[in-house]
Amino acid sequence: MRKRSCGTGNGAALNHLKAALTAACLGLISVFWPGTALLAAEWTATPGQPLQPLVANAAGGDLIILPEGRYPAPLVLDKTLTLRGKSGAVIDGGGDGHAVVIKAPETVMDGVGVENWGSDLTAMDAGIFIARKATGSVVKNARLQGPGFGIFLDGVHSAVIKNNVIRGDAGRRSQDRGNGVHLFNVENVRVEGNDIRRTRDGIYIDTSRDTLLRGNHMQDLRYGVHYMYAHDNRLEGNVTQDTRTGYALMQSKRLTVVGNDSQNDLRYGILMNNITDSTLRGNHIRGIRQQGGAGTISGNDGKALFVYNAQFNRFENNRLEGSDIGIHLTAGSEDNVVTGNAFVHNRQQVKYVATRTQAWNGNYWSNYLGWDMDGDGVGDTAFEPNDAMDRLLWRYPAARILMDSPAVLALRWVQRQFPVFRPQGVRDGAPLMADPARPASAPPGPKETTP
């Protein structure tokens, strides 16, 4: 390994003179342009050789170039450096522990492949582990494939995780894999434009605040995004596909969930458990159906939106489409504002398990059969998506086989004509007559790539 130089003079005296003049000039630069990287050097690694000696010789602010080839780990970046990989440059974790640990602030890893790190989830083995002191560090354009956590951020502030490709070990059970990106006790972190597949969860956010998750694609996972005890966070423009649950929002407050897409996720598009004071707006959830067909397992229907013990939230301009159940509310999920949403061709638009009427307004229902005599775009009669027969079928699921029988259809008709025993439930007092402009669908997921 050698450090590049700018050339040499002839004779010791000339060298001393040059050094003195250079030092004086750099001193003036540091006065007039504070923060300028001075004497930053570029180092080139040798494939097959450990990188740690090169890091030890480099100074803060230096650039280390990794040409194509494999480099043995572990590697600890304990000073502020930029590590830039050329195509085919891979750090091999050797199957044990962390492959790379970032400990210094403002460190940048750009375009470096990382593979084959440890699988001990208790020890939090990760391809890239970002420690608390690595404030402002950036990992971008990386290609990671391994059994443990992909990128683990531990208590760090102001880090950026951007445009990375992360793959788990498909040969392991889902619960034995690490998460693609794991955020623990972080603040002001941005996770953007990543493609994550076959890990346990795509992005896991635990006890963190002021994070932004934007434009990520997550596929073939348990949960695409998983929040736990995470307040004041924003989730925007992400796509989940073929997961067991697209977005699992749990035990959190003041989440802003905007413009996300859930495509063909198995059990839930968005799951909300004990969520308060949050906003869900402009999300598109479609094709959430139980594997094997609706009703295969009683109570396990696919739910576009499942709301459990969640209060004081706002659901606005979301599109819930083509699922077994559009929205399922239970366990005291009340005092929420539900307006401007489109419930389109779900087998059952609403399942509401409670005894208190919920007043919604201004949603579109594809099965609304009312009329609009004054032409204001709002139905003249309220829409109640459920009746007493629905409640009976929820209580006795085995009776579902009779759902479309003449007897049940007759009972539904009688109840509509003579609503003497109207059950408590959801009532939309101003149903929209026309399907509102549907949000732009997310483009297909990026083509599968192998790191």
Q: What is the gist of this entry?
A:
By secondary structure, the protein is mainly β.
Features:
mainly beta; 4 helices; elongated
- Main sheet strand line-up: 1-2-5-8-11-14-17-20-23-26-29-32-35
Enumerate the spans where pLDDT stays under 50 for 5 or more consecutive residues.
4-24, 26-37, 293-297
Overall 3D geometry?
elongated
Largest sheet: 13 strands, parallel
Provide the β-strand percentage band: 25-35%
Number of domains: 2
DSSP strand count: 40
Put simply, the count of helices is: 4
Residue share in helix: 10-25%
Structural Rg:
28 Å
Mean pLDDT: 86
Structural class estimated from helices and strands: mainly beta
Domain Carbohydrate-binding/sugar hydrolysis: 58-206, 212-381
Pathway: Protein modification; protein ubiquitination
Keywords: Repeat, Ubl conjugation pathway
InterPro entries: Carb-bd_sugar_hydrolysis-dom, NosD_copper_fam, NosD_dom, Para_beta_helix_rpt-2, PbH1, Pectin_lyas_fold, Pectin_lyase_fold/virulence, SCF-Subunits/Alg-Epimerases
Question: How is this structure best described in words?
Answer:
The chain is mostly beta strands and 451 residues long. It folds into two domains: 48-171 and 194-200, no CATH class; 222-386 and 423-443, no CATH class. It has four helices and 40 strands. The strands form four sheets. Strands 1-2-5-8-11-14-17-20-23-26-29-32-35 form a 13-stranded parallel sheet, with no helix packed on it. The protein is elongated, with a radius of gyration of 28 Å. The two termini are 27 Å apart.
